[in-house]
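Sorry to interrupt, but I need a hand with the structure work. Go ahead and set the record down below:
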Amino acid sequence: MAREQILLIDDSDDLYDKLDQDARGEHFILIRQRSDLMLEKVMQMLEPKLIIIGETVIEREPLELCTLLREQTLIPIVMTLGESCTMQKVVEAGANDFLSTPVPYDELLSRIKAHLNHYRRTRDQLQCELQLDDLFIDLISQKVQHYEKQIDLSAQEFKLLTFLAHRPNTVFSTNQLFYHVWEEEKLYDSKTVMVHISNIRKKLPPKDGAPSVIQTIHGVGYTIHDFYC
């Protein structure tokens, strides 16, 4: 079995040293990042299978960092924070699990292995990739390529694009898209949907007379046709 990489974001030597020692007897490699500086590039280079966020992160609050990471990736996130933190706060920030400090290392190691196993099973069961003509979508890493060029989409743009790509030839009104993608029916705003669709089209321009990725059905809504898929 290939050794999977785990990213530890924490400035604590104690947490790193203990986990690094345990990692040698397990099938994973522990890599430490002390702050959120250059974190996006680190994530792209390492492609970790799990993230641990400690309470001594430099430059940013751990819960804020967790929220930012959850917008970028679906991999498991485990947090180790002080007793004043609660599971509710951690879950709302996007984490999968939480242990209070001082960290019980045996328990942390067990949870790491459990989350990695669950992630592997889920990844294998789901359709992880979508190929739509010259558009490639990786649903796990949330990466998008268009004509072999990496495209940066916001979290909501990615959700909107993948929602339509999963349902070719199905036309959705702006109201339906807002409900399914933003999940805030009472706060419906058609302009929000149209702005995001416009942004996606600008980032994914067609070439050589090809149709736009997202088609407008006038008076009805938006779709991605199967001739594009």
Remarks:
- The CA atoms of residues 137 and 144 lie 5 Å apart.
- The mean pLDDT is 86.
